[in-house]
Model the fold of this input.
Amino acid sequence: MRGRLILVWRPVPLADWNGRPHRVNAPSEHRHEHSPADRPARLTVGVVGAGRVGPALAAALQLAGHRPVAVSGVSDASVRRAAALLPDVPLLPPAQVLERAELVLLTVPDDALPGLVEGLAETGAIRPGQLLVHTSGRYGAAVLDPARRAGALPLALHPAMTFTGTAVDVQRLAGCSFGVTAPEELRLAAEALVIEMGGEPEWIEEAARPLYHAALALGANHLVTLVAQSLEVLSQAGVAHPDRMLGPLLGAALDNALRSGDAALTGPVARGDAGTVAAHVAELREHAPGTVAGYLAMARTTADRALAHGLLKPELAQDLLGVLAEGESR
Done:
């Protein structure tokens, strides 16, 4: 088992490291024989935004020996999550969270992040040398520029995982990939924090963040929608336990897709069974009309990929594409 990396940290003003060798040292030798209390330079941790992500990451950092000291949250659900994952950590306004913490996790919705950063910078809440981490997949480190001008050390650490808001999330962080973007002089510090949370750092260039996030949404978010629709239609078809039926099938399909990509395509579209696809569209239109647009869009994309990779024979594709075009025109 790989030992955890130890992040050696000394808060310093931005002016002291900008353009010079930084004082956030590279992770030291791998260690796993010491308790968290024995590790050097443990950080005080604050969370701004007690949604599903922030408390889980703070709890993971706590397991690595860091010390959560404050969390902000407004809704009843946020208060409950903070109490469950970070017991005895006080709930405070964002400015007071920043007063107490050397490492601050900004775990708010994407659209709220730029305004939050600007507001914290304008009110003087940010201290020079403070590590400021956001977990948005959409943004890189540039969204933290107002904080950086105030002396903060900006890091973008996005866990590529769906969160439940419960303690199970802390366990699932083991082996979870994080999209990491930071100034080059902070790259080792960013990667060390990810490893301390049990994750695997994956470097993403600033300009590639929107494309990176779109790819994850395409795969994960849309997968949930497809699975939910499939469960509903199976129930309508009389299947008593659709989850049991789908579990092994989807598990195998996902494993095959990750291993083989487009070569894993199967089913009536990839085979060119136009009659079967036409029957699907007719049944869905009658019993689950809300699924038809998604079925047709995915079938069209599947056909295009199957054709491009030689899985769908061109002579069968014409009838299939005709069925899809007819379905889209209705």
